[in-house]
Every structure is written in structure tokens, then in C-alpha cells.
Amino acid sequence: MSSITLKSLSKKYTNDKHTLDQINLDIKDKEFLVLLGPSGCGKSTLLRMIAGIEDITQGQVYVGDVCINDMEPKDRGVAMVFQNYALYPHMTVFENMAYGLKIKKVKKNEREQRIKTAADILQITPLLKRFPSELSGGQKQRVAIGRAIVKEPKVFLMDEPLSNLDAKLRNEMRIEIKKLHERLNSTFIYVTHDQVEAVTLGDRIAIMAEGAFRQIGTPMDILECPVDMFVANFISSPPINYLDARLIERNGQTYLDIEGVLLETNLPIQVMQDHPEIVAGIRPEHCFLADDNSNALEMEILFTEIIGTDVLLHLKYKTRDFLVKKSFTETYAKGQKLNVGMKPNHVIVFDKTTQKNVRRLP
């Protein structure tokens, strides 16, 4: 079993507040879990505590049914891939991949077989005699992953492994890591601050802020029903739009009134009394351009941003910026006026005071 259980895990540095405070999490066997959050939220610290290279202040880490708190890193059955590759410059690729196995006194024949297998999986066999200085960034990252694979760990820990690569290579390596997980059938814990990486790779995503979890769930659950405005904004790429709104009732039906645009909702009328001040969250991809302004907001184009086959319209509504994402089928001019409508089933309603999603509140 390569499940991971974290029980009341905390980390506190001298005279500081807790970097991590009472972390509890069950990671299933063979699951791909992504730790997502802004810089400084504690996600890399959490990964290093599981790996055994960061001391635990309080709590326990279990691999399967075994508490590994007091085990040396090499005995924990985990392998870590770092952001900076951490390759030995004076060793060839083969020697880098073999080093950890030598430390564990794995026999030469078995070392060579493991390295051959890992090199074949990662398509780096032609690179085995090269030194790190002779490799590209993508090749170095493959070697770093290969060094982890040969250890045949129960759990792979990856700390922002793609952040040093260019955009095209990041996209390619994301696909390779996803394939690798499926091929190795192991448990992966992956740290990133990139929302696209998290949604692409994760079976589940654990969103962190200030040393604690804000929300844990599948990518679809978090995208469709974020627990609060922080999560909604952090998981949205491009950023979500926010507009002040109110709930009104007409003939027993609740409507969302966004600056005069009325959207039918399935929220109970009681929500209207419980949350008098609300904010509507509208993702750029859930907006559309209307023919008239009968149930749309008139906005002005500031500039456009072409993203592959899509265009991101940067608009101004009164004093607020607003984003609309649509297929790139025509060009738009600065200052052009557009009528923007919103898909009612995709608008997320938050309480303005607590910033919590009203659909998730008791």
C-alpha cells in the first residue's frame, strides 16, 4: 500500500507563527494529488516533511499503516524530484541515476537494469553518457525524474518540477508526467502554483493558503463550486470576474440581479434574507457577446490578447476591469462598445462579507 495519511501535522520555526498548522489529509493509493497555492503557503514545506528532509514539529506521517516520522529519508519509500534538478555536475546521466542505488547497495546488475528501464520510459537512453552541462532544461528534468524512478519508490514527491522550463516544454512535460503516473501506477504528490498544471494533472487538488487547506476536491468540483472567492480566483485562468449583485424574488422565483441583468437561479428564497449583500463571480469563458443590451452589460474594449485559437477581451465596465474569453473569429478595436451577457448556470454567488460561496454554506 502506498497511501499517505497526515495526522495533525504542524511545522513551527523558532519564534514564528505556524508555517503549517494541524494538517490532516488522506491520500489514496495510486492517487495523483496536487498541492496548489501561492508562494509561502507551506506546500513545499509539507512535501519536505513527508520526504524527511524537514523536521516535523507535531503530528504523524504514515505510508500505508507505518508511521515514518523517525525513519531516515532513504528508508521511507519515497523519492523526491526538485525544482532545480539537483544533478551532480561531475557525473554522467547514468552515474547520476545510479548514485542513490549505490548508496542503498543495490547490486550492479540490478542497478543497470533499473536505469535501462527508466531511460526507456523517459526516452533518455541516448543521453546516458552525457554530463548535465550538455543537456537542455527538459532533458535535465527527465534525468531528475529518472533518478526517482530507479529507486522504485512507493510515493513520488514532485516540488514544482516544471517551473524552470519554457511554456512549450512545460506543456509537453505535463503530458509526460501524466503518462508516467499511469504507467508506474504509483502515488504522486505534486506541488505547483500553476492552476493549469493542477487541473491537468490532479485526480484531486488541495488548495492551500497561510499554512492550511482551503479546499480539497476534484478539479471539476473546485472549478464548479469553489468554497470561497480566494479559491475561485486562484483556480481560474484567466482570472474570474467579480461584480456586485443582489438576489430578488419575482412570483416565487429567485433571480440574480447584476447591474440590471436578471439571471434565473435555483437558489431558495431564504438565501436572499440570509445574504443581503452578495458578489457574482463570472469566469471569462462563461460570458458571451449579445446582439443588444436588453439583458446584457455594455462594456468598452481596452485591448485584446490572442491565446491560440481564443481571444481574451480586456474590457472596462464603469470603473472595473472585466474579461471575456471567446473563439478568435473576428478582430476588435480599442474603444469599441460590446454587450456582454452571462450564462446563468455558471455564475457563482458569494456572500460579500464572508466571501464564502452561498451554495456551500449550511
TrEMBL record:
<dbReference type="GO" id="GO:0016887">
    <property type="term" value="F:ATP hydrolysis activity"/>
</dbReference>
<dbReference type="InterPro" id="IPR003439">
    <property type="entry name" value="ABC_transporter-like_ATP-bd"/>
</dbReference>
<keyword id="KW-1278">Translocase</keyword>
<keyword id="KW-0067">ATP-binding</keyword>
<dbReference type="InterPro" id="IPR013611">
    <property type="entry name" value="Transp-assoc_OB_typ2"/>
</dbReference>
<dbReference type="GO" id="GO:0055052">
    <property type="term" value="C:ATP-binding cassette (ABC) transporter complex, substrate-binding subunit-containing"/>
</dbReference>
<dbReference type="InterPro" id="IPR015855">
    <property type="entry name" value="ABC_transpr_MalK-like"/>
</dbReference>
<dbReference type="InterPro" id="IPR008995">
    <property type="entry name" value="Mo/tungstate-bd_C_term_dom"/>
</dbReference>
<keyword id="KW-0813">Transport</keyword>
<dbReference type="GO" id="GO:0005524">
    <property type="term" value="F:ATP binding"/>
</dbReference>
<dbReference type="GO" id="GO:0140359">
    <property type="term" value="F:ABC-type transporter activity"/>
</dbReference>
<keyword id="KW-0472">Membrane</keyword>
<feature type="domain" description="ABC transporter">
    <location>
        <begin position="4"/>
        <end position="235"/>
    </location>
</feature>
<protein>
    <submittedName>
        <fullName>sn-glycerol-3-phosphate ABC transporter ATP-binding protein UgpC</fullName>
    </submittedName>
</protein>
<dbReference type="InterPro" id="IPR017871">
    <property type="entry name" value="ABC_transporter-like_CS"/>
</dbReference>
<dbReference type="Pfam" id="PF08402">
    <property type="entry name" value="TOBE_2"/>
</dbReference>
<dbReference type="InterPro" id="IPR047641">
    <property type="entry name" value="ABC_transpr_MalK/UgpC-like"/>
</dbReference>
<keyword id="KW-1003">Cell membrane</keyword>
<dbReference type="GO" id="GO:0008643">
    <property type="term" value="P:carbohydrate transport"/>
</dbReference>
<dbReference type="InterPro" id="IPR003593">
    <property type="entry name" value="AAA+_ATPase"/>
</dbReference>
<dbReference type="Pfam" id="PF00005">
    <property type="entry name" value="ABC_tran"/>
</dbReference>
<dbReference type="InterPro" id="IPR027417">
    <property type="entry name" value="P-loop_NTPase"/>
</dbReference>
<keyword id="KW-0547">Nucleotide-binding</keyword>
<dbReference type="InterPro" id="IPR012340">
    <property type="entry name" value="NA-bd_OB-fold"/>
</dbReference>
